[in-house]
Amino acid sequence: RYVVLTSKHHEGYTNWGSPVSWNWNSMDVGPHRDLVGELGQALRERNIRYGLYHSLLEWFNPLYLDDKKNGFKTQNFVFLKTMPELYDLVLRYKPDLIWSDGDWEAPDTYWNSTSFLAWLYNDSPVKDTVVVNDRWCNNCSCHHGGYYNCADKYKPGTLPQHKWEMCTSIDRRSWGYRSNMQLNELMDESSIISELVQTVSFGGNYLLNVGPTKEGVIVPVFQERLLSLGKWLGVNGEAIYASKPWRVQMENITNSVWYTSKGSTVYAIFITWPEEKVLKLSSPIPSSSTQVTMLGFSEMLKWEKAPDKGLLIPLPFLPPSVLPVQCCWTLKLEGVE
């Protein structure tokens, strides 16, 4: 479990007192607070891992624009601005994760990425614990990194061989806050949970973005979405946290049932409640010791072998509204293959 804060986005404003961003940082302008430091302390008090997003490029920085004009044959911006900031972030805040971005215009020889990463993994104070993503040069994404982002809102469609992360935003149209956003432009609770489930079934991490206002406030509609997701995880988190992909990620007959696993236990998460109140699972192979329960429901569920293969599981005779959550329910299967 981790939180990622934008330490600096493409416009160059830093949310800490960067010594190379004079008068364009959160200590000099705006809140006059070290936001990177304050959030890091709060998260660590709650035993939550801390990640820092950092943009390599800056849209309007004259040094960067001059290097770009020179075909990235000069590196004044790299050595005077972006690399000093990365080293400062690591030495000062010791993040668990570095979420690099803004890499796409130039090669690694310009960004000096390999030199920084070599230091990070061999000599930095976080060398034994830090994790990085795959955005360090213009041909790096989905090829090199501790884990892969590949692209914003990336969905692999099949089980990748490399650890990956799906990064998306509650506001479908923006990563930052928009005062004119409309309700139909936001992900609803069921869309968020369904996307989380599919991501974890394929072995990915799910990073959900909210854009705060200029005052640093997370607006009520975003709070409601996050609290709903937290409520769902309170019931179904056993099937999500520390889980691993199963031998099958989803039922072939439908995309409304997704699987995760933990040891010998298999979790079947179904997105929609079947009208006939009987859920068919074709992939698990039952045995005489098979037991089926539903997370958030205390009683054991009955089951029977399906005529062809798998299980037929009559669901509780309760409307979904009586159950603890309003979408995406989890069956815990023990004693199946």
Automatic annotation (TrEMBL):
Gene Ontology CC terms, in alphabetical order: lysosome
Organism, scientific name: Pelodiscus sinensis
Keyword terms, alphabetized: Glycoprotein, Glycosidase, Hydrolase, Lipid metabolism, Lysosome, Signal
UniProt GO molecular function: alpha-L-fucosidase activity
Gene Ontology biological process terms from the UniProt entry: fucose metabolic process; glycoside catabolic process; lipid metabolic process
Predominant localisation class: other
A Pfam family of this chain: Fucosidase_C
Keyword Hydrolase: yes
UniProt EC number: 3.2.1.51
Family: Belongs to the glycosyl hydrolase 29 family.
Entry protein name: Tissue alpha-L-fucosidase
Occurrences of domain Glycoside hydrolase family 29 N-terminal (ranges): 1-238
